[in-house]
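subagent[fold] <- orchestrator: predict structure for attached chain, return tokens only, no commentary.
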Amino acid sequence: MLDMSMFREKSEILRKDHDKRKIPHDNIDEVIRLDNEWKQARYEVDQLRKTRNESARGIAAAKKSGDSEAVDKIMNEVSSIGKNIEELSKKVEKLLEMRDSIRMSIPNILHESVPVGEDDQKNTLHSLHGEKIDLSFKAMNHNEIIERNGWVDLPRAAKITGSRFYFLQGDLARLEMALQNYTADFLIQRKYTLVQPPLMMNREAYEGVTDLGDFETVMYGIEPDKFYLIATSEHPLTAMRMDEIIEPSELPIKLVGVSQCFRREVGAHGLSDRGIWRVHQFTKIEQIIICKPEDSWSHHEDLLENAIELWDSLGLHYRVVNICTGDMGTVASKKYDLEAWLPGVGEYKEVVSCSNCTDYQANRLRMRYRTSEGNSAVHTLNSTAVATSRALVAILEQYQTEDGKIRIPEVLKPYMSNQEFLIPLH
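subagent[fold] -> orchestrator:
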């Protein structure tokens, strides 16, 4: 969430940002109103405490003079003031809770370079990578490929769990593991620390990294423990330093997380979203950076460059787009997406999301670093390296041959016994 100083001192910046997003100013006004009421109520509590303390000092003087009637009177006054303080303190807590509840729903301030647009059709092209394969034959989509080769069993997974779960088997399962190992090695060589995070988080930690109002519908809850299965390792890796003051010598913190991820992915989807493209459980390798505010925009470009170099090394054609105002979520200040070309369906589809969240998550997580002027919020950034199921789809469709074989990308061959093609199961 945004620091309260933005509402108190720079509300016009927030209003202009809301205008870019085409959302009303009502919540900004309400936060400011509640903040003023909260400050006034807190002031009144402080004044009552001073009055009570002054009255309490009068009790000792009255006792010393032997004036029992004065003692009783003052004690009644102190008791009455105490009740008023208790009632007003509850009001202070309620006002603070209401203020911050609304404040948490107000989106991050967009970077000035974010293009203005109503929806994803207004995202702008940042760069184009690799050659768009002009297959001399009719390309199969990944659903046809996995069915033909027996590498995925969707019906049996649906039988024991439900739709959008799957058994990954044979050489496609091996290729998925190769992607995990290759990507982890790729980022470890770039001085990222490998982390396997918990697969569940409590509500307080989750509210620190995302807007549960938007995200909760796609998450799986664990009862009766009130945990959530993680939707991406970005969430636990960012939250792992919550309520901490980080020494500046530790920054930047660079992590690569490997985990299973769980999402409901509710709603109707098209043909290209079937098979293993949009599923409820998948593996993702995620980049995380926690850094000083003045370094975050250069680190954002570093994250993007890592993703580009990784996907270039896989020999895949894709484009990078700059996400516009209407397609931006609550948390990020700026976001790039990598979209891989899927010749089987003739579409570019998102495979990587790369975001700078500035101090938005850090404020929610109370995550700061030590400075000479006091403690200050860090900046947090995240980027997919590889969501393996989507990378597999891109490989299957771009590396297919006319005779139905699937070539293995050169960099993954050492992880696949140096074989040239995936071996069908039937």
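orchestrator: received. Logging for downstream: The chain has two domains: 4-103, 120-416. The longest strand covers residues 281-291.
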